[in-house]
Amino acid sequence: MISTQTFEGDPLALDRQVCFALSIASRNVVALYRPLLEPMGLTHPQYLVMLALWGSEPLSVKELAGLLALEPATLSPLLKRLESIGYVTRGRASSDERQLAVALTEEGAALREQALAIPPAVVERLGMTLAELEDLHRVLTRVIAATS
């Protein structure tokens, strides 16, 4: 179905493109995390894995990939690196030996305390209110749902 909405001005202007704004915003927000994650030895994708595991663990690789909207093949190198630095373990799930389970080590679980400082630091660096960021999150969640 063709939209009946009309555009004022050039609908192909770069600065009007949602994809462009999302791309730049994503790159810039992830860059804000870099100096905060560096002392913990984490990259942003590794931080997302840790967030998922701090929420619930152990998780199968399949469950983790689903939560993070990643392909298992993309997730595998992240998990290997997290395992090599001592934050997670990977092993066969006791409930189903065909599944690979990921769990936090003691060191990985303890890292959560240090990570508690990250969200407020990001909010401060963005210079937006928590309400604005929650509104943005709701809108982005709708975009994700519409594109999935």
Automatic annotation (TrEMBL):
Cross-referenced Pfam families: Staph_reg_Sar_Rot
Location(s), subcellular: Cytoplasm
Origin: domain of life: Bacteria
Record keywords, A-Z: Cytoplasm, DNA-binding, Transcription, Transcription regulation
Chief location of this protein within or outside the cell: cytoplasm
GO molecular function: DNA binding; DNA-binding transcription factor activity
Coiled coil segments of this chain: none
PANTHER family attached to this UniProt entry: ORGANIC HYDROPEROXIDE RESISTANCE TRANSCRIPTIONAL REGULATOR, TRANSCRIPTIONAL REGULATOR, MARR FAMILY
Protein name: Transcriptional regulator, MarR family
Organism: Saccharothrix espanaensis (strain ATCC 51144 / DSM 44229 / JCM 9112 / NBRC 15066 / NRRL 15764)
